[in-house]
Structures are given as structure tokens and as C-alpha cells.
Design goal:
373 residues; mainly alpha; 2 domains; Growth Hormone, Chain: A; transmembrane helix
Length: 373
């Protein structure tokens, strides 16, 4: 699995997620500070990115089997970067929304062509489940680094220079993907529209339950601004990665998911009750550790449930639902946020409901489906 091509794609995924998620706090700060918009207006404008990921979805299969897959990936990232340079010249909310929609649609194509296509192309068939898990972890680390960078760099860089950094971070995955060697595939006579490499209904129920995890992160991203807090989340997630093999080989899936969501719930309680940075940092560590534990079980379901020919579609379904969950969390977090920290109570409620739904129905659904394969 650990061949040159796969390692290049891992690094590309990390830098792509870092670039995209760095832009969230950067745009929010610019819209509120210079544009005069409210936090809710800025959060809603940024969150529309999540819905835009679905725009090109019905064309995904046609795109990667009609055109060169590397070209589809690199050109979508290049356009994503170039669109980012336009923001300083248009401060009207309608234009900003249009740019976010375009960036979301392009990011959706980049995710599909890289994670659901190129990674599978360069990985031996018996290693693809493990490859999908590892590829996901690189994206999660990139996401956390991007959020941390977006909140930290505002103290040192102007908005214009932050956008230049965003473009540089996008150029890195373009170069890395360009170095990947993929076997030539003759174009197929495919229909223009299809659900292949877009949505797999077989994994939709566990995927909707999985959205609890990114929803909680979205609420936190939009309302917690301490940069060291995000370093603590990364530390908790790194500890999970160091123990990942132990969790995968010895822990029961139902127990694993329960522990992960309970740890995330404990982190939310600490955020709600916190009155100092010490408890904030502890909450960050628990959030990172719990996120890894819970996501591991959800990912296993979404990777194992697809049939052999559905692997790419199943993984892209996860990618879409993950990003949607983050954006819904950003929007609702901003909507309910106040001095009483209601956003953390909302996230805690969603966390507990997600835990009950998983234990009461989703785990059994997964077991039955696997037996009937």
C-alpha cells in the first residue's frame, strides 16, 4: 500500500484540506471585520460551500472516465485556487455567495477524483480498505491544521496575504498529483448523468448517523477561537492514530463508537462549563480523541458496506456527508450561539441522539447487511 503514488496522494490530500479549511475562519473574519456583516450572515455564506459540493455530483463518473483523471483533479484544484483570489475585489454578499458556491462545486470534483478514483487506482485491491482509512486520516489532520492556521495567521498576515497562502497551499497538491503515475484507461461510453462516484444509498443510513461527528466539529469551528485549543484537538487525534491498530484489532465496533461519542460529549460539557483556558485545552484533547474513535467505526461501515464495484461511490458518499455535516454545524452553531453558550448544548443534544440512533438501529443495520452480502 505504501507505494510512491499513494504517499504523494496522502500529502496532496493533507495540503488540499489545509488550504480549504484555512479559508473558513479567514473569510469569516474578513466578512465581519471589513464587510460589516453579522456572524450569522458570514457563517451562512461560508456554509453554503457544503451544499455546493453536490452540484457536479451527477457528472462525476462521466468526468473521470471521459477525461484524464489527474487532469480533472489538478484543474479543479487550480480553479478553486484562482477563485479564491477574487474575494478582495467583491464585497457584496451575492458575489461572495456565488464564489463560495463555485469553490464548493470544484472542491467536490477534487475530492471525488482524488479520494474516490486516484487512490483506488494506485492501491492493490487487497489494501484498499486500509488505504481509504489512511487517506481519511490525512484529510482530518489537514482540516485541523487549516482551522488552526486560519485562526492563528490573522495576527500576522493581511487578508490579501492569507489568500496568497491559500493559493500556495493549493499549488502543492497540484504538483503532487501531477507526479502520480496512473495506468491509462480507455474512455467508456458512459451516460452523462449517473449516481456512480456520487451517492451510494446502501451506505446512506450510517452516513447520515456519521454526520453527528462533523456537525459537532462545525459548531466548535464557528464559535471557538482559541488557536491552542485546535492544537489540543490535533494532539488528541494524534494519540488516537498512534493507538489506531489496537482499536481496530481488539475493540468491538459498538463499544468503540459509544466511547468516541461519549468523549466528544464530555468535551462539549467542558466547553459549556469552562471559564478558563485549562478546561478548554482538556476539552480539545477529548474532542480529538473521541472524534477519531467514533469516526473509525463509521468509516469501517461506509467502506465495508459497498460491493466491489461500488467502492469509489461509497467513499465519495462519506466525503460529501462529512463536509455537509461540518457546514451544517457551522451554520447552526452561529445561529444559536450566545453568551450562555447554547451552541454547545445543541451539539451535546445532537451527540447524544446520534449515540442512541447508532446503538439502537445503525449497528444492527450494518451487521445484517454484512451477513447478507
Amino acid at each position: 500500500m505504501w507505494n510512491r503514488n499513494f504517499n504523494l496522494l496522502l500529502a496532496a490530500n493533507f495540503f488540499l484540506y489545509t488550504a480549504v479549511y484555512m479559508l473558513f475562519p479567514v473569510l469569516h473574519r474578513w466578512m465581519v471585520g471589513e464587510g460589516g456583516y453579522t456572524n450569522l450572515q458570514a457563517g451562512g455564506t461560508i456554509a453554503i460551500f457544503g451544499a455546493s459540493l453536490y452540484i457536479f455530483g451527477p457528472f462525476n463518473n462521466y468526468l473521470v472516465d471521459t477525461f484524464k483523471r489527474k487532469a480533472v483533479c489538478t484543474r479543479s484544484i487550480l480553479l478553486l485556487a484562482l477563485v479564491g483570489l477574487i474575494y478582495p475585489y467583491f464585497s457584496g454578499i451575492g458575489t461572495i455567495v456565488a464564489l463560495r458556491v463555485l469553490q464548493g462545486a470544484l472542491f467536490g470534483v477534487a475530492l471525488m477524483s482524488m479520494g474516490s478514483t486516484l487512490v483506488i487506482d494506485v492501491t492493490p485491491s487487497h489494501c484498499r480498505n486500509r488505504a481509504n482509512l489512511t487517506f481519511t486520516w490525512s484529510g482530518v489532520l489537514g482540516m485541523l491544521c487549516g482551522i488552526w492556521g486560519g485562526y492563528s495567521l490573522g495576527n500576522f498576515l493581511s487578508f490579501q496575504y492569507e489568500l496568497y497562502l491559500f493559493v500556495i497551499l493549493c499549488i502543492v497538491p497540484i504538483l503532487l498529483v501531477s507526479m502520480v503515475k496512473v495506468c491509462f484507461r480507455a474512455p467508456l461510453d458512459l451516460p452523462l448523468l449517473s449516481l456512480d462516484r456520487f451517492l451510494l444509498f446502501r451506505t446512506l443510513l450510517p452516513g447520515l448517523n456519521m454526520m453527528v461527528v462533523p456537525f459537532i466539529l462545525g459548531v466548535v469551528f464557528s464559535t471557538t477561537f482559541d488557536s491552542f485549543f485546535y492544537i489540543c484537538i490535533m494532539a488528541g487525534f494524534v494519540v488516537f492514530l498512534l493507538l489506531d491498530r489496537l482499536f481496530r484489532s481488539q475493540a468491538d465496533g459498538r463499544f468503540l463508537n459509544a466511547v468516541g461519542l461519549v468523549l466528544m460529549g464530555m468535551a462539549l460539557v467542558m466547553l459549556y462549563l469552562s471559564d478558563g483556558r485549562d478546561s478548554l485545552w482538556g476539552a480539545g484533547f477529548l474532542l480529538g480523541l473521541g472524534m477519531g474513535l467514533s469516526l473509525l467505526q463509521f468509516l469501517r461501515m461506509m467502506i465495508y458496506l459497498p460491493l466491489h464495484c461500488e467502492r469509489g461511490t461509497g467513499y465519495h458518499t462519506y466525503q460529501l456527508l462529512w463536509e455537509t455535516g461540518v457546514m451544517v454545524g457551522v451554520l447552526l452553531g452561529q445561529y444559536v450561539a450566545n453568551s450562555m453558550k447554547r451552541q454547545y448544548l445543541l451539539a451535546l443534544l445532537v451527540c447524544m441522539v446520534g449515540l442512541l440512533v447508532y446503538q439502537g438501529g445503525i449497528h444492527g443495520y450494518f451487521v445484517r447487511r454484512m451477513r447478507n452480502r
